[in-house]
## 1
Amino acid sequence: MTIVDRFTVKVNWDAAASVWYVEETDVPGLVVEDESFDAIVEKIKALAPELLELNKHLLRSHNTGSLPIHVMAEQLLEIPRNHH
């Protein structure tokens, strides 16, 4: 695996289950879901440091303690058209 300066977590909305879930990430083992976007972000913030600690080989040695994580959200909105 490549050593990175920043990690990415892509979360997506599952309308059928009414939950946000981690669709794609380079944080090994990060599998979470929640009913709200804010709650899934809190879970990511809680779990990512632990998971990355278990995978120290992915971190740059000069890391100063902060873990930059780019959270990207995607949600398909189906908006009814106005019929005049």
Note: Helices lie at 37-53.
## 2
Amino acid sequence: MATLVTGLGYIGSALVQRLLSMGQTVIAVENFFSTPRTVVETLGSVGDLRLIEGSIDDVKTLERAFGAATIDAVYHLAAQASTSPCRTRPTRSMLRASQVIEPIVPGMNRNR
């Protein structure tokens, strides 16, 4: 079983650590905008972690992620790392959060 996780922040990295400890293969998409690279070093020592570096709104990044293994589950946890854009432009931030799901859905459908 392979699981795709977008975002290796606080929640994403905890989830990945748990999945790896259960023996699952994890494909992780991370752009390292606010997540330190040391997170990957720590998680990679736990189990089969396959890192795809890039943005979730980049179609080629998602194609690499969905092509890395047969994906059985997706946890979409990537989000705006800073609250500042949410306060100054709340409508744009909410739209952005919902729009990034669109490119993920076709990959999920192909892996059924």
Note: The longest helix spans residues 10-21.
## 3
Amino acid sequence: MVGFDETVMQPTHRRRRRRFVTAVVDVGTGQILDIFEGRDARQLRAWMAGMDPAWLAQIQVVSVDPHEGYRSAVINPDPHSAGLGVQLVSGWVPGGGPGC
């Protein structure tokens, strides 16, 4: 199971805008697999496009927070494809997540 979740990077200076990064996590081990800037469907699709298709094909379950950008990218990673064909688990876990 792979999970996606965003974190906001708050600037120390008020005039700079907040930046979001997304962590890709192996939910079974808790290992961070990758981190990329952004949190919307376009950025997640770009990340998936750069991954080995054989690795993506092995993913059976994806865990996401209730953010629409993640859900839409997983369901339809490319407007010309049928999606990843995975079970999508979405929800908020009180206390921050597994093992917390």
Note: The radius of gyration is 14 Å.
